[in-house]
Specification:
single chain; alpha+beta; Roadblock/LC7 domain-containing protein; Mycobact_SerProt_Inhib_Rv3364c; six-stranded antiparallel sheet; Roadblock/LAMTOR2_dom
Length: 140
Amino acid sequence: MTSGTTGENSWVLDAILEIPHVRAAVLLTRDGLVSGYTQALSQASAERTAAIMSTVQGACRTAAAAFADQEDARIRQVVIESDHGYILVAPTAHGTCVAAYGDPDVRLDLLAHRVHSQVARLGEKTMAAAPRGADGATHA
């Protein structure tokens, strides 16, 4: 596996890559744009993965709301199991998502814990960032 990440907030993915059998990860916006990805993916694969994961999350929100007979649902995570391994997707509170892929030997509990820990760290960093005005200046 190629290690390392690409993108402004890709530091979130570094700790996920440390888990044995994790092969790739993507940081994406809720609307399917790539914010960061692991070097195991090409940019085209990261973009395709982000678009697909965004669609999957939307479908899962709709399904969860329909089953609960509600207007909307907040998704905490989506897990996909296939003969190739596991995909775990966890949204953040501020509109981004972390998606990670591990082969069939990955410990899903460890992967879930690490992804959610990194989602929390990303949220803390985002909340700690000072707001910017229209002119780009930081306001205290």
